[in-house]
Amino acid sequence: MNQPVKVSEKVYWIGVNDRETALFENLWPLDKGVAYNSYLINDEKVALIDTVKINKMDTYFEKIQEILGENKEVDYLIVNHMEPDHSGAIKEAMHYFPNIKIVGNQKTLEMLEAFYGITDNFYLVKDGDVLDLGEHKLRFYLTPMVHWPETMMSYDETDKILFSMDAFGGFGSLDGGVFDDEVNLEFYEDEIRRYFSNIVGKFSMMVQNALKKLQGLDISIVAPTHGPVWRENPQHIISLYDKWSRYEAEEGVVIVYGSMYGNTERMADFIARKLSEKGITNIRLYDASKTHVSYIISDMWRFKGVILGSCAYNSGLFPSMQTVINKIENSALKNRVLGIFGNYSWSGGGVVNLEAFADKMKWERVGESVEAKSSPKAEDFKKCVNIAEEMVKKLKA
Ligand SMILES: Cc1cc2nc3c(=O)[nH]c(=O)nc-3n(C[C@H](O)[C@H](O)[C@H](O)COP(=O)(O)O)c2cc1C
Ligand SMILES: [Fe+2]
Ligand SMILES: [Fe+2]
């Protein structure tokens, strides 16, 4: 979208869509694009809240120009987050508006110098400080490690807008609709959870700290740096974040397998059917080689049950399953229930490594691990039934 969108009387959304970047952070598939949201408060003093990625700068400055006209300048650039998808246009903004002050905390300052060699025109703020723009007053809340050291949020006390940077945001470009009441939320919630689980989830404890700090704030609008702006139901996205960062999960099972010739896959399908027979309706079955791990971890963040299967591969896990295991370990997902299965033909390597993973994660286990030799036999299927039954018992308990 090339036009600015009004968030309130003097506050504008001036974000841009990116549908050309294939991988966010060169890792996470952007099949549905992504938006870099930035905001402009056109008060007596003019403040920009965050910028956009460098590849989208032209549209961005056109929008600012459209709001301000020829005679007004931007006075402040609030830098809530230094990751380059938002800090990319800082240098350019300083070029356009030579008197601009860059507003950030001590950690922001260090990063500004490290990334862009910027040391001048800095306006240092501490936790709880207020910046007066005229009618609008911005209060700053330092929320370190959500998900970088310098991350902070800015709260407009006048219109009760929380500029929350990456928190509450997600993948998916804004295709016409900008606000929660203008879009299909099911679509965005999936992409917000995928963003959360892959990028922010590892810092769930810091998210909880941030939520505690924001408690009691009267928030009418949540304005993140990605995804929709929440004005109809801001509490909805806040409560989703709260739930995810407490590792709370829904009834359902994610089965992921690594298989070359289908023997491990047969066991996965068999277990899935048994789960279904026992009344589980949310079953997600993934071939680790086919579905990007970012989607898999996102579903694991949603559902309580996880069942992992791997054939043996050069004495180890099947490589695509290794990727899945690494991702779970790295994001430190907690409180899940785990079942294990696999396949081998001589000395194994799959199941033994899944067992080692289970020990590290300290997840609750269901059933006995089953490792079939080449094609699964009756006794293997019996153990698969047991995994499914025990899983259902735990989920329904
Ligand atoms: C490249 C390669 C490496 C393998 N490495 C091992 C191994 O180290 N230990 C083992 O017991 N089986 C190993 N296998 C055998 C498979 O794990 C076994 O045939 C299994 O049944 C394959 O399951 P799938 O049909 O789900 O792919 C290997 C197979 C291949 C093709
Ligand atoms: Fe970020
Ligand atoms: Fe971001």
Automatic annotation (TrEMBL):
A molecular-function term among this protein's GO annotations: oxidoreductase activity, acting on NAD(P)H
Signal sequence annotation: none
Alphabetical list of PROSITE patterns matching this protein: FLAVODOXIN, FLAVODOXIN_LIKE
Domain Flavodoxin-like: 253-392
Annotated family: In the N-terminal section; belongs to the zinc metallo-hydrolase group 3 family.
Entry protein name: FprA family A-type flavoprotein
Native species: Irregularibacter muris
